[in-house]
């Protein structure tokens, strides 16, 4: 069965290779679409950064490049990016299969199904083809979950450090990770040691970047502060952009802090509440971040919806079947570029159309996230009362 | 009283005759194709000598040099000042090369560059802001809108015109070259009036008396320029100021407008139709332009020259570069004046206070002296139709027999996020090289690129391109457009944003000095705009969705899970329900008491 999973993933790899070979414009089309690119993660700004770097122009002098210096150096060395991205994405598929095997859930899909789900997932394929750096980010998070599940904490802490270095929001995952460390070791010292290791690895990465960019701290501003301060106002599928375009200057900084706190607010509660299932907590956190973060893309959404396959155990108590919610998301994702096109190119609609559909997407994601939470809570209740999951008991919360 | 007046007047007349001020003026006419006429006004003024680093409290005598401008220059340590006001489109295919090799013509709107002396970039920038604000008041132009987001520091073009400055004198500080442009500025009468006020004749005498707003800005193309340079010998320095006004007038149109200020369609009986093409009562292909013309300065400018500028060091001179086979020039004034031939040109001088008018009689306006073709043709356009991204495309043609080196200078506002790696070169619309190709460097010899910083600095791009003889090249560059904040959009945001013209300079292949300079037209860029009526709706709707998500997840995480039956029974037991029950009972009791009574 596992062998067949690998052969399916290999097929997926070749699909990811074949499409750009047959249709080379696909990358620039996806890269220019609002769904797959933001100024923070787009492939064209990565190319610009690599170009400036190879021509000895400081990439951090301007405001186009928002990538950490080490990533830029890495990409300036890489050739055959089609292969690289296809390989990275197939590796995500492989890790998903591994995570699926290692989870302790009573019901789960077979490796073959998980592999098929990822290999032929249109969202995953399109994300890979857009060549956005969010693919690397997704990989780092998946790797983190994989290591954590295997209790390889040192590896997961280093992965998390790299992940944090890549994208600002990933440091939120330190909280569930620390809970995992505590769960398995039951010693506070281990937690403190882990935090120290984490801080040390992040500092090492930042310091080497500082040296690499000729002792300049501007990369910090471009990589992290521009996300926190929402410096690049460009339409995306999140909630921030229209709010900060329209908000009066006077309130701007207040709402910036509110939005940033909002994105962090459930990190600790989720980890505390689901101490026993931190993979689920992290997954819900990723889902919450998809609409609470500053620059979400479909590639970010892809991480959440690909991991949905791991939680078969909670499908039973869902109000909406995962198939239905998946279809809903796909529907909204097809509407989004249409309304964007109507606004930007045809000029027959204005920003409100796109914004409204973006709101619907956020509501839909809220529903999916809370639906899974409720399902999880019900399942926990049944387990705690030693009831059969199929018993008809109507639950409520007070 | 009267006895005194006469000697004073006599003395004044003597003064006029003997004292001469460092001021010169001349006017030149040049017929162009399609009945256009180039009128070129030139004024030169020198200031008195001064020392560069003199204490602030010292008083200065500016002589004919404007006292409006002098203190501004001294206050801001400006060593060179170049200001351009232009409007209209210069069509090099009809007008030939730009007057004075384009060195005194600006791009559409206002353009300003200056050489400032200062200790460091910050202090110089402060002086620059002071300078633009002062000039803004002086010239009634929106120069005060110039800030760091539109200021560039050119590296290879706009270099100092008077290098004397660096040689003769040891400067205390460094020199900085700053440049900015306002492409959206409409050039108008209110800019002309202060322009004339800088002249010692103040537009009352000499050739400047011809310049009235409504005639100057009726031209096809107009360019006003002011160039102030500092010249030093030893420790003594003086300012030299040159002012140019170049106008291209469509003569038949100007005459028509004099005849009929409110345009009406030509009546059918006066239409001249092309007999080689079919014509009847409904169809008429009008004949080519009129070829016989007779016009005078009064027709063109509505005024006569009000005498010469008598305080000038040289008498006022009026010249015309005519093909004498079909053109003739007649001076109309009280005393007999006949124009003389000076080299190629027909000229006369004005040395008295009489009114002068010049009458041009033309047998065939098509017969003009051959126009010089410009060494380069260039145009810039925007590509792409979307509001979120697009591209620049610059077409340059070298029509000459020699290879030519050009510098393309672009200053692009920060909200246009350009991607330099998309720079593509196409030669004769056949061969295409992208910037990373090795062949690209054969044509583009150098790139100077200072990327933009949001709200602080524009992108500054200078490309040194070598174009082979008789070759057309196309350079294209892609960009993304950023959205602005609500308050940053100007009124009528959907009109779009003017991108200032690209400046293209042709370099001498040996000395690398600029030999010809031209500007493309401005580009109108539309940015994505939000709905300006939405702030409250957006705040409310976004906040609602966010609180919806927060509320539902918060409830799920914090509340206790129970079965529905248990929930009901607990609800009965809860204190609130009990309280409500007691209140109900009391109310009932009171009601029953009231009923009884």
Describe the protein in words.
The complex is a heterodimer of chains A (398) and B (597). The model of chain A has no long low-confidence stretch (mean pLDDT 92). In chain A, 70% of the residues lie in helices and 1% in strands. Chain A is globular, with a radius of gyration of 21 Å. Chain A has 398 residues and is mainly α. Chain A has one domain. The relative contact order of chain A is 0.11. Chain A has 19 helices and 1 strand. Among the domains of chain B are: 267 residues, no CATH class; 149 residues, Immunoglobulin-like, CATH 2.60.40. Chain B has 13 helices and 28 strands. By secondary structure, chain B is of the alpha+beta class. Helices cover 23% and strands 34% of the residues of chain B. At the A-B interface, helix 3, helix 13, helix 14, helix 15 and helix 16 of A face strand 19, helix 11, strand 28 and helix 12 of B.
Name the descriptors.
heterodimer, A: 398 residues, B: 597 residues, alpha+beta, eleven-stranded mixed sheet, 28 strands, membrane (chain A), GPI transamidase subunit PIG-U (chain A), GPI-anchor biosynthesis (chain A)
How many domain regions of chain A?
Answer: 1
Q: Which structural category fits the helices and strands of chain A?
A: mainly alpha
Task: Work out the strand percent of chain A.
Answer: under 5%
Number of helices of chain A: 19
Overall pLDDT score of chain A: 92
Overall strand count of chain A: 1
Helical run tally of chain B = 13
Low-confidence stretches of chain B: 9-17
First CA to last CA of chain B: what distance? Answer: 116 Å
Assembly state (oligomeric):
heterodimer
Helix content of chain A: over 70%
- Tell me, briefly, the overall form of chain A: globular
N-to-C CA distance of chain A: 45 Å
Q: Mean pLDDT of chain B, rounded to whole units? A: 87
Strand content of chain B: 25-35%
Enumerate the spans of chain A where pLDDT stays under 50 for 5 or more consecutive residues. none
Question: What characteristic shape of chain B results from the CA principal axes?
Answer: elongated
Helix content of chain B: 10-25%
Biggest interface found: A-B, 66 and 60 residues
């Amino acid at each position: 069965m596992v062998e067949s999973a690998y052969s399916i993933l290999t097929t997926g790899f070749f699909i990811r290779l074949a499409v750009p070979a047959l249709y080379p414009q696909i990358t620039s089309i996806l890269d220019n679409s609002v769904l797959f690119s933001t100024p923070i993660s787009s492939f064209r700004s990565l190319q610009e950064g690599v170009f400036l770097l190879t021509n000895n122009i400081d990439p951090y002098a301007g405001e186009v490049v928002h990538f950490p210096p080490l990533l830029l150096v890495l990409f300036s060395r890489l050739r055959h990016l089609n292969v690289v991205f296809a390989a990275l994405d197939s590796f995500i598929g492989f890790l998903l299969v591994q995570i699926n095997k290692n989870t302790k859930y009573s019901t789960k899909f077979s490796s073959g199904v998980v592999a098929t789900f990822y290999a032929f997932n249109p969202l995953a394929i399109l994300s890979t083809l857009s060549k956005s750096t969010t693919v690397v980010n997704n990989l780092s998070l998946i790797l983190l979950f994989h290591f954590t599940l295997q209790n390889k904490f040192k590896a997961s802490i280093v992965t998390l450090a790299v992940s944090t270095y890549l994208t600002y929001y990933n440091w939120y995952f330190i909280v569930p990770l620390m809970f995992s460390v505590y769960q398995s070791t039951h010693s506070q010292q281990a937690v403190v040691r882990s935090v120290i290791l984490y801080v040390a690895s992040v500092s090492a990465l930042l310091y080497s970047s500082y040296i690499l960019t000729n002792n300049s701290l501007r990369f910090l501003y471009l990589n992290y502060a521009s996300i926190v301060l929402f410096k690049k106002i460009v339409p995306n599928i999140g909630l921030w952009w229209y709010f900060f375009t329209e908000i009066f200057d006077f309130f701007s900084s207040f709402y910036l802090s509110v939005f940033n706190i909002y994105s962090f607010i459930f990190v600790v509660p989720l980890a505390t509440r689901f101490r026993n299932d931190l993979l689920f907590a992290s997954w819900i956190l990723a889902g919450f971040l998809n609409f609470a973060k500053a620059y979400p893309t479909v590639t970010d959404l892809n991480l959440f919806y690909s991991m949905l396959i791991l939680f078969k155990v909670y499908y039973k108590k869902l109000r909406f079947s995962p198939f239905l919610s998946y279809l809903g998301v796909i529907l909204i994702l097809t509407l989004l570029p249409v309304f964007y096109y109507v606004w930007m190119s045809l000029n027959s609609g204005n920003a409100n159309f796109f914004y409204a559909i973006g709101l619907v997407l956020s509501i839909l994601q809220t529903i999916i996230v809370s639906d899974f939470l409720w399902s999880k809570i019900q399942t926990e209740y049944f387990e705690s009362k030693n009831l059969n999951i199929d018993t008809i008991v109507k639950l409520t919360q007070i | 009283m009267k006895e005194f007046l006469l000697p004073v007047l006599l003395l004044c007349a003597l003064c006029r005759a003997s004292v001469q001020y460092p001021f010169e003026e001349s006017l030149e006419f040049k017929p162009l194709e399609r009945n256009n006429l180039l009128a070129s006004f030139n004024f030169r003024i020198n200031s008195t000598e001064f020392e560069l680093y003199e204490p602030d409290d010292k008083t200065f005598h500016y002589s004919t040099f404007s006292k409006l401008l002098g203190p501004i220059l001294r206050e801001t340590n400006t060593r060179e000042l170049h200001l351009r006001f232009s409007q209209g489109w210069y069509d090099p295919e009809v007008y030939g090369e730009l007057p004075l090799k384009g060195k005194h013509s600006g791009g559409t709107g206002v353009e300003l560059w200056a050489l400032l002396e200062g200790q460091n970039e910050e202090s110089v920038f402060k002086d620059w802001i002071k300078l633009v604000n002062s000039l803004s008041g002086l010239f009634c132009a929106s120069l005060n809108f110039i800030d760091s987001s539109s200021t560039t520091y050119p590296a290879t073009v706009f270099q100092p015109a008077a290098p004397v400055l660096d040689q003769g004198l040891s400067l205390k500080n460094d020199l900085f070259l700053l440049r900015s442009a306002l492409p959206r500025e409409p050039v108008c009468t209110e800019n002309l009036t202060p322009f004339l006020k800088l002249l010692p004749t103040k537009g009352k005498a000499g050739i400047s008396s011809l310049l009235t707003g409504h005639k100057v800005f009726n031209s096809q193309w107009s360019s006003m320029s002011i160039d102030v340079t500092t010249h030093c010998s030893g420790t003594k320095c003086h300012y030299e100021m040159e002012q140019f006004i170049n106008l291209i007038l469509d003569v038949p149109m100007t005459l028509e407008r004099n005849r009929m200020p409110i345009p009406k369609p030509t009546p059918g009986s006066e239409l001249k139709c092309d007999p080689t093409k079919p014509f009847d009562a409904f169809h008429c292909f009008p004949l080519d332009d009129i070829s016989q013309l007779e016009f005078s300065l009064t027709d063109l400018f509505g005024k006569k020259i009000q005498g010469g500028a008598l305080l000038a060091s040289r008498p006022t001179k009026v010249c015309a570069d005519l093909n004498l086979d079909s053109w003739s020039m007649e001076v109309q004034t009280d005393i007999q004046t006949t124009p003389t031939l000076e080299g190629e040109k027909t000229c006369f001088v004005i040395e008295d206070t009489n009114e002068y008018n010049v009458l041009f009689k033309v047998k065939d306006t098509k017969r003009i002296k051959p126009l010089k073709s410009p060494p380069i043709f260039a145009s810039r356009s925007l590509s792409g139709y979307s509001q979120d991204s697009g591209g620049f495309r610059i077409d340059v043609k070298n029509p000459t027999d020699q290879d030519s080196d050009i510098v393309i200078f672009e200053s692009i506002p920060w909200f246009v996020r350009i991607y330099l790696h998309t720079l593509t070169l196409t030669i004769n619309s056949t061969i295409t090289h992208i910037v990373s190709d090795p062949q690209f460097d054969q044509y583009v010899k150098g790139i100077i690129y200072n990327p933009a910083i949001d709200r602080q600095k524009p992108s500054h791009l200078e490309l040194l391109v070598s174009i082979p003889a008789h070759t057309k090249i196309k350079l294209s560059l892609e960009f993304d457009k950023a959205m602005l904040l609500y308050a940053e959009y100007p009124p009528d945001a959907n009109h779009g944003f003017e991108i200032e013209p690209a400046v293209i300079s042709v370099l001498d292949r040996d000395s690398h000095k600029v030999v010809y300079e031209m500007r493309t037209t401005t580009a109108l860029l539309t940015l994505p705009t939000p709905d300006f009526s939405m702030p409250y709706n957006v705040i409310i709707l976004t906040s609602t969705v966010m609180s919806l998500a927060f509320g539902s997840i918060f409830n799920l995480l914090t509340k206790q899970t129970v079965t529905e039956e248990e929930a009901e029974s607990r609800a009965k037991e809860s204190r609130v329900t009990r309280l409500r029950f007691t209140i109900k009972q009391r109310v009932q009791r009171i009601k029953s008491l009231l009923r009884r009574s």
